[in-house]
Design brief:
Elements (H helix, E strand, L loop, with lengths): L49 H14 L4 H4 L3 H13 L13 H17 L7 E4 L2 E4 L5 H15 L16 E5 L6 E2 L4 E3 L5 E3 L17 E2 L3 E5 L5 E3 L13 H26 L12 E2 L5 E2 L16 H13 L29 E13 L5 E2 L14 E12 L5 E7 L11 H8 L8 E8 L5 E5 L3 E4 L2 E2 L7 E11 L16 H9 L12 H10 L6 H25 L16
Antiparallel strand pairs: 1-2, 2-17, 3-12, 4-7, 5-6, 8-9, 8-12, 10-11, 12-20, 13-19, 14-17, 14-20, 15-16, 15-18
Helix pairs in contact: 1-4, 3-4, 5-6, 9-10
Length: 577
């Protein structure tokens, strides 16, 4: 094996950004309207060029390979990657999207930066900006404990299985936050000095009203993170996990959350740090008034339109464009260590975190062999203040590749001349009057893999199917939704369990020497029905239908409001054997 000769450049000298700290006003979120020119203050970045997105896709495909950080040390392997990448075509209609030798070289040099970010102990590594993954985060012994703990939930009679509404019997909800959620006006909350009072809907700034529910909130549990990073359940219960019947699950969830903590820290750090430099710099050209513009603008500058009518102006512009070629930008000459800043991160140790827990299985059968995929969405509404999601794909069998795709809202491209639509199409594949949304990339979600990402990104489960259509198959996930650590919302700490069945069972199992134990069963049942803040399973299911209907409308509004402000399609598929 030959030693790689890829350059090992030291990061260029600079003082660096200030130390990362938790934001005083909370983390950026997608539960807001876009301004006329939305930008980083709303969690939106400038769009990347199509060729930079293809560079990221190439890097991701390489880093999807087993032991890529070792293979990159071998000259022969690196040259094979280089040759295969250069053979990839851009697009028949857009040859400008082909990767140049400089772009491929930059990607290969940048691999060292990603290797330096990788934690060999946990396997945590960066996939795309703000998206992290690990295939070795959860030890085998802990996975086995989880499998054993969820078995009783999976083993209920068919008549008691909770199939997610609208999933056509494909998604088996073991623990889902939409069931027994907070219902404003009905759910009770314990005050610090007073008794139980009904919860009321929160009030946020007016711009967030359409993204705020006046009816429901998912219910998190509080977890205490000590100075060493150990997680302990601080709330009396986890919503929809029976505290006595499912003790093992209540025990294993904090253990897995403890392992997820470093991934949450990395994601949140990425959302507050200064933006990294672009790999493709679109500046340096000259426009109408000789001001600096995007580099794809012609070197001599586009002539100022002299025609009076809009139609004549467009004809003149098209005629000029037909005679001139683009000066498309290339990658920076070398990777200069930009990724190094991603090694610095905030700490969530010594804090109480609010986390919403979800467990769900996709179950495929020969009768129903296909999962159609999901919708583009973010998690929760403004009420939950979710800033990051962590998904542990702990078991799968007999299914095709399962892929999780991501996209982000962007600001408008800068340094571009007005009405320079052709340049916008070539650089970003942006069309006038279409949403400003860009694909980030996708992650293969195989067994044992953990993925963490910010709620600023929409995500979508891609379709998958049975590998062998004659046999059943499944995919099982454990999900943590992290509430903004700088905020506090009603949780299982101050909201008593709403499951009337739990309350009835607790009353019936009272100590034999207690007064309750001496009462007839009929009286005990009547007492449980009179306790404020509880509901039957049927009532909870009816509320869930209302909640899901409300959030279906929210997803549409969020698409238009935050993610709806010049949509791109990207040729990101690059294959590296």
């Amino acid at each position: 094996m030959g030693k790689s000769t890829l350059p090992r450049r030291s990061p260029r000298f600079y003082k660096g950004p200030p130390p990362l700290q938790l934001p005083k006003d909370g983390f950026k979120h997608p539960f807001q309207e876009s301004d006329i020119d939305p930008g980083p203050e709303q969690g939106k970045e400038h769009p990347k060029t199509i060729v930079e997105l293809r560079m990221c896709a190439l890097s991701n495909r390489i880093r999807e390979k087993p032991n890529w950080w070792e293979k990159m040390q071998d000259d022969a392997i690196v040259e094979k990657w280089r040759d295969e990448a250069l053979q990839q075509t851009g697009d028949d209609d857009n040859p400008e999207w082909e990767l140049t030798p400089g772009m491929v070289n930059y990607v290969l040099e940048e691999l060292q930066g990603y290797a330096d970010l990788r934690d060999p102990e946990t396997g945590i590594e960066a996939r795309f900006k703000r998206i992290w993954k690990s295939d070795g985060l959860i030890p085998v012994s802990l996975r086995e404990k989880l499998l054993a703990a969820v078995a009783p939930l999976e083993g209920v009679p068919d008549s008691e299985k909770d199939w997610h509404p609208g999933s056509d019997g494909l998604v088996f909800d073991l623990v889902h936050p939409s069931l027994y959620s907070v219902v404003y006006g009905r759910t009770m909350r314990k005050g610090p000095r007073s008794g139980l009072k009904a919860l009321v809907a929160p009030r946020f700034e007016s711009g967030d009203l359409k993204f705020t529910s006046e009816r429901f909130q998912w219910l998190p549990s509080d977890f205490l993170i000590d100075g060493d990073g150990k997680a302990t359940l601080a709330s009396p219960y986890i919503n929809n996990v029976h505290p006595t019947q499912h003790k093992e699950l209540c025990s294993v969830i904090p253990e897995i959350l403890q392992r997820a903590l470093p991934m949450f820290e990395r994601v949140l750090s990425d959302t507050i740090r200064q933006l990294l430099p672009m790999r493709i710099v679109t500046s340096g050209g000259r426009g109408f008034n000789n001001e600096e513009t995007a580099d794809c603008i012609w070197e001599d500058g586009m002539p100022y339109p002299g025609s009076s009518s809009e139609e004549e102006c467009e004809e003149d512009q098209e005629a000029w464009l037909d005679k001139h070629s683009f000066k498309t930008p290339d990658a920076r000459e070398h990777y200069d260590g930009d990724l190094k800043v991603m090694g610095e991160r905030i700490s969530l140790k010594g804090r109480t975190l609010q986390v919403i827990v979800k467990l769900a299985n996709v179950v495929l059968t020969p009768e129903k062999p296909d999962y159609p995929g999901g919708k583009w969405h973010v998690e929760g509404m403004r009420n939950e203040q979710i800033v990051s999601s962590f998904i542990y794909y702990y078991d799968s069998e007999n299914i095709s590749a399962s892929i999780l795709a991501f996209r982000r809202a962007t600001s408008e491209p800068y340094n571009h001349e007005q009405d320079d639509e052709k340049c916008m199409r070539v650089l970003y594949d942006i069309e006038r009057e279409l949403p400003l949304v860009q694909d980030v990339g996708d992650v293969v979600t195989k067994t044992h893999r953990c993925v963490a990402f910010p709620n600023l990104y929409q995500h979508q489960v891609q379709p998958f199917h049975l590998e062998d259509p004659t046999k059943p198959g499944h995919r099982k996930i454990l999900v943590f939704f992290l509430v903004d650590p700088t905020q506090t919302i009603p949780s299982a700490t101050n909201v008593p369990p709403q499951q009337r069945e739990w309350v009835t069972e607790a009353i019936h199992s009272a100590d034999a020497n207690s007064t309750l134990a001496k009462l007839p069963v009929e009286i005990l049942t009547m007492i449980s029905k009179k306790i404020d803040g509880t509901m039957t399973c049927l009532e909870a299911e009816e509320y869930r239908e209302e909640l899901m209907a409300e959030r279906t409308v929210f997803v549409e509004e969020n698409d238009k409001g935050y993610f709806g402000y010049v949509r791109t399609r990207t040729s990101l598929v690059l294959t590296i054997d």
